[in-house]
Amino acid sequence: MEAIISLIIGVLTACGVYLSLRGRTFPVVLGLTLLSYAANLFLLAMGRLTIGAPPIITETADGYADPIPQALVLTAIVISFAMTAFVIVLALKTFKEMGNDHVDGIHKP
Amino acid sequence: MTTHLVITAVLLPLLTGVGLLLLRQQPPFLQRAVSIGSVFIQVILVCQLLALVNQGDILTYSLGNWAAPFGIVLVADRLAIWMLLITALIALFSLLYALLDVDKAGRHFHVLFQLQLFGLNGAFLTGDLFNLFVFFEILLIASYSLLLHGGGRLRTKAGLHFVVINLVGSTLFLFAVGILYGILGTLNMADLALKVAALPAEHVPLIKVAGLLLFGVFALKAALVPLYLWLPNAYAQTSAPVAALFAIMTKVGAYSILRVYSLIFGAEAGLAANLIEPWLLPLALLTLVIGMLGVVASTGLRQQTAYLVIASVGTLLTAIGLNTQAGIVAGLYYLPHSTFAAAACFLLANTIAVRRGEFIDRFESGPSLPHARLIGGLFFMTAVLLAGLPPLSGFIGKFMILKAALAHPQLVWIMGIVLTTSLLALIALARSGSLLFYKVQTVRGQAESAVPVPITREVLPIAGLLALCVVLVVWAGPVTGFLQLTAEQLLEPSFYIQAVMTLEKTP
Fold first, then answer.
1. Is B357 helix (H, G, I), strand (E, B) or coil?
2. pTM attached to this predicted model
3. What sequence ranges are listed for the domain NADH:quinone oxidoreductase/Mrp antiporter transmembrane (chain B) (predicted)?
4. What's the domain range around B339?
5. Is B397 within the bounds of a domain?
6. The CATH fold of domain A2-51+65-98
7. Any chain A CB within 8 A of the CB of B134?
8. Dihedral in degrees, nearest 10, Cα atoms B41, B43, B49, B52
9. Per the domain annotation, does B502 fall within a domain?
10. ipTM, two decimals
């Protein structure tokens, strides 16, 4: 499971970096989204991967999932969600005002 | 009562912001009164906190009464309150300038302004790394909207770059925080300092990676070379009061560098001690050089001021990069000076630009300015401050930095670069001043540009900011005395750690 998770995080990050270096706003927004997905998964994995373990103390449990990264990820998801919404609106505004969707506002065919 | 004073500094702007949202149907003067009143109360509040921390205690506040390191703590030591004081003062004068007409250019200016202060105050006070991330995001999202306030093509374009680069920065911050938590199991800064100091050797490389990732994030916020490219356009294109407030934003990065790398990765951090020492000084000097080249090459006053902000970050981090007590004192003295002077210059650039018609703030010989003596006099004083000439605070700041550098092995480089860039600043500002004020040509068919507000009201905030710099000179003795104690407190992390970790539950 560790290998799969790390592979997923790596691929997401790589795609995110590639897309956010593109010249048009739409791929950039997608790239930022992928990057934030990767960051969120990474944060979650930092609490160690556990399956079926309770995050709060119970008498019958023999292992626990770390609840703090889950709380951190929840915060990070909300923030990245808000930021993504903002950057989408901003990208649309730039498109409307500049007349094209290049990040520098200059149309390069 | 005093226990809750610390969180009041964070809550006041938040509640004012939310309150202003409810007042949006009310007449503008009421919103303005509430906004400026709140900032004024913040100044008083911070002065009171300053008096408290100056007794030597580190004030802490555990949110939700959860004991550290399990809950989030706010920590008010001398450094945090010093930053809060600078923020409150700069906010006061920026807002005074914004009240002239800028706040009417779009909706919710005052709400965003207060939320920006909320983020700034929180970032300075928090004692938890993840909480620092959250406050960074708060101040950033407020700053995105403030930057775009009023609209315009160039502003939107600069805004997009600013937003995208900062979002990437936020992602990096999360990765760094993740690594730190994954290995150390805590995010409380005091607890992190303890855990890093006792780190087993096999985890050191990973922690160093996390520490350097964090440095990358803070360097991005502080506009350190090579991560400064977002700043010049963003600051030059936004409205004047917002740019003036943003003068403190790069200092948030500098503050975070100072805090994290003196507390967590400082001299006592065991195997990860003095983590960024090999990086900070060269990068800071490079920033100073590149920023100053930008100053010389600028084609307009606002752009020039933006590059001066970069150069001042370079100077500031050079002082901090010396990694000595004297260096930190010099840096902390230079910090408010450079912030106030840059803010005054942004406001002044706008005052000049609205009076030059189509020439705005470009360095071309344009029509003669109305009130040229008054504006020119203010510009002269600002230029003296920014170039670091005697007798004003820029000179004292740079003198203290150079004096602190005397014992440093890289003295030649530091001395050479700081002095040469000061000369470049002097030349560039002299050129700007003579182009804007002396080389006047009659422009045919151009009527006097309509300036809606009287000059006295515009000049008041600028003069206020410059007066603060004068205060820094006149009371240089007490200020440096206070900063001496601040640096002592910073270089002895055990005070901070003790104050946080022995936190008892308040009944």
1. helix
2. 0.93
3. 127-423
4. 277-442+451-474
5. yes
6. Helix Hairpins (1.10.287)
7. yes
8. -110
9. no
10. 0.94
